[in-house]
Amino acid sequence: ILDKNVDLIKKVYIDTQSKIMTSYFNNEFKKIKNTEQLKDFSNKLVEYRQYIGSDEGQVLYSEFFQNMQDKIKEKEQSYINKALIVVKENRFTKVYNKIKNYFKSLVFQN
Known about the structure:
Number of strands: 0
Low-confidence stretches: none
Shape: rod-shaped
Helix content: over 70%
Order of helices and strands: HHHH
Largest sheet: none
Radius of gyration: 26 Å
């Protein structure tokens, strides 16, 4: 009976630890808006390793960590790609810029 209770306690501990970890980091990941926050998140994820209990917890953490690293790389790449997007002028911006330049030329002529 004692071994059965110890195994049950271990299982509940690992399950609880896993739920806390995944819930916290998944929610925090959704809040990230820029590369600086992404870097801070990644550092927190690395630091969290020291708080994991038991060998089974380390295995769960390692799998979760690798999965989150993949998501971090994807998000980082999306930020890089957004920074490289070339925005073409549409008709509205062309007209707006012509009007703006016209008024600038009037102001600077005087």
